[in-house]
Amino acid sequence: MAAKASKQDDTAQDKTSGEEISSTTIPPPTPNKGKDTSQQHNAFTELLSHSKKPSSQPTESPIDSHPPQALTTFSGRSGLGAYTHAPESFPPSRVISYDESYVTINDLYPKSSIHLLLLPRDSKKQLLHPFAALQDPAFLASIQQEVRKLRLLVAKELQRRFGKFSAQERKREEAMEKALDAGEDVDEATLPKGRGWSKDVIAGVHTHPSMSHLHIHVLSIDRHSECMRHRKHYNSFATPFLVDVDDFPLSKQEEVRRRKERWLDEGMVCWRCKRNFGNRFGKLKEHLEGEFEEWKRE
Questions:
Q1: How far is the C-alpha of 268 from the C-alpha of 178, rounded, in Å?
Q2: H or E element: which one contains 158?
Q3: Which residues of 203-218 are buried (b: 16+ CB within 10 A; e: fewer)?
Q4: pTM of the prediction?
């Protein structure tokens, strides 16, 4: 009976975003397939466009000369499998980069102003629970290396989007302009440090993932998004339910603790000021709007 109860608890906690679990269909080929679509990328896509795509692809005849093809759909909790199966089929607004080992996508339901998913393509690891997959030292090291790259890239994008609001960034810019106006060489070591945007990026896996395929969340700390709709959404990124990739490997004791605790049902604590809002999500959501504006101005 204890084992049955534990399984029921896992299922309950898995459903952090039940209304957001949807199937993903691999798009059919388009006339632009195989052509350079770099002009369609937005600034963030350009920043993150480090995919090792083939340098050349065979020229295809017009799409209407091909017979209709059956579409491949990855249903429900397997929806992320579509991106690792055929990342080249998706637009750059969804798939940011890919190579033979990883695919990076924009989360379809972002919980912060920037929210990426890192998807490993290793078929032996894809369908394992994160705790099991990250027990492999070599695989863990590879994941941590990829996450470090994404942390830096997300930090650069935060600076691009919000740097103009930041007091710390403004001090650095003013000092630089002053030196240039005086005809002096700019010594980076003497300038104000500016804002360390990397500290505002978090990355981890969920204790009870809502999707079957292994995925690592890399997101800005602000939790500012229309898709943040209820307590379980918030607590899944504001409690130990999210395990930082740098905390691995976990001890067996810690694994048990992470799985057992009902993190999603805890009171909601503001990530910035640490005020506890209990179960009053509406109040927290209103509060987070103000915190977002203050955070941008730091």
A1: 45
A2: helix 137-162
A3: bbbbbbbbbbbbbbbb
A4: 0.80
